Amino acid sequence: MSKHILLGVTGSIAAYKAAELVRLIKGAGHEVSVVMTKAATEFVRPLTFKTLSQNDVALEMFDDSMVWDPVHIKMADKADIIVVAPCTANVLAKITHGLADDLLSATVLAAPVPVLIAPAMNDRMWGNAATQANVKTLRERGIEVMETGEGDLACGYRGSGRMPEPEDIMVAINKTLND
Ligand SMILES: Cc1cc2nc3c(=O)[nH]c(=O)nc-3n(C[C@H](O)[C@H](O)[C@H](O)COP(=O)(O)O)c2cc1C
Questions:
Q1: How many domains does the chain have?
Q2: Which CATH number does the domain housing residue 153 bear?
Q3: Pairing, β 4-9 against β 31-36
Q4: Ligand 1 probe mutation, 10, 12, 36, most atoms within 8 A of CB
Q5: How far apart are CA 3 and CA 72, in angstroms?
Q6: Which atom of ligand 1 is nearest to the CA of 10?
Q7: What's the pLDDT band for 1 if we cut at 50, 70, 90?
Q8: pLDDT score of 15 more than 70
Q9: Residue to substitute in 9, 13, 148 for testing ligand 1 pocket (most ligand atoms within 8 angstroms of CB)
Q10: What pLDDT digit, counting tens, does each position of 114-154 carry?
Q11: How many angstroms separate the Cα of 28 from the Cα of each of 8, 21, 91, 109, 168?
Q12: SS3 108
């Protein structure tokens, strides 16, 4: 059955891989809406996601086209699952601490649906005690934080912190939707 996936894209160099994820989600017959942080738009243009998802891309909390219902509540209401891929250390921390100072974090906080996080960051950011404590807290709350991959990182280092591959994220999405 077709589901509605809300995909949050954040300001990581891995943001380009989210385009492939959108393609896989559409190929599986689901609807997908993308919300990007401001930093994410430095890496990939919204037009890429708009075209691949065949949906508008949400960027602003205070949207002029808003009729009466706040964008973050409207988006939270229609999602069957929220996937944040790639998820920066910053957004991971915001979700952990319940911050809601941009459209994506506010939507995650307002959504009564499963949240799947695919982190992507430098190995030291990933290994930092603050990030690891956040991951532990989120997992204890039942939020799925995927393991990062090992290998060459875009920042020039080697280590863990690579975003899981889009195919693996798609498997995790299907598993969550079918649970
Ligand atoms: C070239 C470049 C690549 C970056 N890649 C990452 C990354 O993979 N993961 C991460 O957590 N932050 C990364 N950052 C830092 C984030 O973009 C920065 O923390 C930003 O404030 C995140 O905003 P957001 O979490 O609202 O998207 C990168 C910054 C630059 C300049």
A1: 1
A2: 3.40.50.1950
A3: parallel
A4: 12
A5: 18
A6: 27
A7: confident
A8: yes
A9: 13
A10: 999 999 999 999 999 999 999 999 999 999 999 998 877 67
A11: 18, 11, 27, 27, 14
A12: helix
- Does the CB atom of residue 163 touch ligand 1 within 6 A? no
Whether the CB of 9 sits within 6 Å of ligand 1: no
Contact 143, 95 (CB under 8 A): yes
Q: What is the pLDDT of residue 67?
A: 65
The one-letter amino acid code at 162 reads R
Q: CA-CA distance, 144 to 156, in Å (whole number)?
A: 28
Smallest CA separation from ligand 1 atom 16, residue: 11
Q: Is 104 in the pocket of ligand 1 (CB under 6 A)?
A: no
- Residues 95 and 105: beta-carbon distance below 8 Å: yes
Active site residues: 155
The pLDDT of residue 66 is 61
- Closest protein CA for atom 17 of ligand 1: 11
Could you read off the pLDDT of 71-108 as tens digits, one per residue? 888 888 889 999 999 999 999 999 999 999 999 999 99
Q: Is residue 167 over pLDDT 90?
A: yes
C-beta neighbour count of 142 within 10 angstroms = 8
Q: What's the domain range around 30?
A: 4-178
